[in-house]
Amino acid sequence: MTTFLCRRLAYTIPILLGVTIIVFLTVKLIPGDPVALLAGTGASEQTKEALAQRLGLDRSLPVQFWQWLSHAITGDLGMSIAQQQPVFGMVIDAFANTLILAVYATVLAMVLGLLLGGLGALRPDGIVGRAASVLSSVGLSAPQYSVALILIVYVALTTNAFPVSGMADFGEDPGVLATLWHGFLPALTAALVPAGVIARTFRASLLSVMSMEFVEALRARGLSRTRVLAHAVHNTTPSLITMTGLQIGYLLGGVVFVETIFNWPGLGLLLFQSISSRDLPVTQAGVLICAVSFVLINIIVDMALAMIDPRVRTS
Predict the structure, then answer these.
(1) Are 31 and 43 in contact (CB under 8 A)?
(2) What pTM was estimated for this model as a whole?
């Protein structure tokens, strides 16, 4: 296991280096001049040049990248151009809120995905199974923006059962319950696409396992339907772990629309605001955190697979 982990971490280093280069260059392609935006419309050229020199934006791209990377390795992500605050604290606070929403959405996605996928696999030709398959397809293809607006109009505003924006303080009493209450609609919106993916993956995996010879052998031995199903579900665990890990990474980086619509103070909302204001240090740090989180989640998934399937360690 140690050798597998070391080999996996060694593969991760060039991936992370490539991610940092792509993040840096992509953010530089965002239209607009942050110096002109920060200096104001009436600023002179001398003022803009002095500001660009102070921010380090007058240097060449390789020099800017090296300075940014060398500082980022030590945890120094710079200062926000728009808010004049340390970027690290802003990004970490926002990422913690996004992590809460992502975990909440993952739980909902797992419950919905396993339920729909299981029904679709156990009754593939029945009405229930077909309905489950249709619902999983709808969840997979439903636009998050439209789903969010529908939930706000027809659930939050009509019934007043849930708030439409904001987040309760997770650390206060009863912060956990209040956070779950505030986060239900955004988590449900974010969970629909992952739920559809998990449902289709679980359905396909369970159907494949149920057609294997060992399932027939278990039935021939007289095991109950419940025990046979438990063995079959156990054999779908590797594919479920892989797909769930990918969906968590998707949720950490793909909830920009959800957080913006529901005004959830997470990394997605922070990225939207920083891109709008051309706050390059915040944008770079936010995208970098999303990318690194996705890579780390893949490592965790690989470790989990290696623990339950020794064949992965030698692959």
Answers:
(1) no
(2) 0.80
